[in-house]
Design brief:
The chain is built from seven helices and no strands. The protein is mostly helical. The protein has two domains: about 80 residues, Rna Polymerase Sigma Factor, Chain: A, CATH 1.10.1740; about 70 residues, Arc Repressor Mutant, subunit A (Orthogonal Bundle). It is globular. The two termini are about 30 Å apart.
């Protein structure tokens, strides 16, 4: 089980960070997901672990959005500003490829474009795209993780990729 968690921890963190825009919250989401996974599904076959883990993480992200919506209502009502968040979560990831400053600048620019366009998608399209394209889950695994039908996954993935192609061009996808 430890090897499984080591193999998915970076991807899970990246997905959570993109969803919540705060490193501490993202770490909490991943840790809570791992704990719940061990508690509920450690006895399942290894082949099912990835989809089950991402299902838990997706549920934790949805819960996070619900809690944040309630917190925002209270902040507005009490007249308080929302907390500072990481402005560009994709830029916070470490570069392990040793790029030149010019390449790094170009990559940051492209990631800002990608992040901006991903944020224009619906939450469901964002999550389907990230699970399918970045995490490499199959349609079936994504459907299981998001607790929806395979047809829904296919539809949202198609719509997300078409929207991103239209805005970013073919080189991204």
């Amino acid at each position: 089980m430890e090897n499984f968690f080591k193999s998915i921890e970076r991807q899970a963190f990246r997905l959570a960070l993109f969803a919540c825009h705060n490193e501490d919250d993202a770490l909490d989401l991943v840790q809570e997901s791992m704990c719940k996974f061990v508690d509920k599904y450690s006895n399942k076959p290894d082949s099912e672990w990835k989809a089950l883990f991402y299902k838990i993480l997706q549920n934790k992200i949805r819960d996070f959005y619900r809690r944040e919506a309630i917190r925002c209502r209270w902040r507005v009502w009490l007249g308080k500003n929302s907390e500072d968040t990481v402005s560009e979560p994709l830029e916070q990831l470490a570069d392990l490829q040793g790029r030149t400053p010019e390449q790094e600048t170009e990559t940051k620019y492209k990631f800002r474009q990608l992040q901006h366009e991903l944020l224009q998608l619906s939450l469901k399209q964002q999550q389907v795209f990230l699970l399918r394209a970045w995490e490499g889950l199959s349609v079936k695994e994504t459907a299981q993780a998001m607790n929806c039908s395979e047809g829904t996954v296919k539809t949202h993935f198609y719509r997300a990729t078409e929207q991103l192609k239209k805005k970013l061009g073919e080189q991204w996808l």
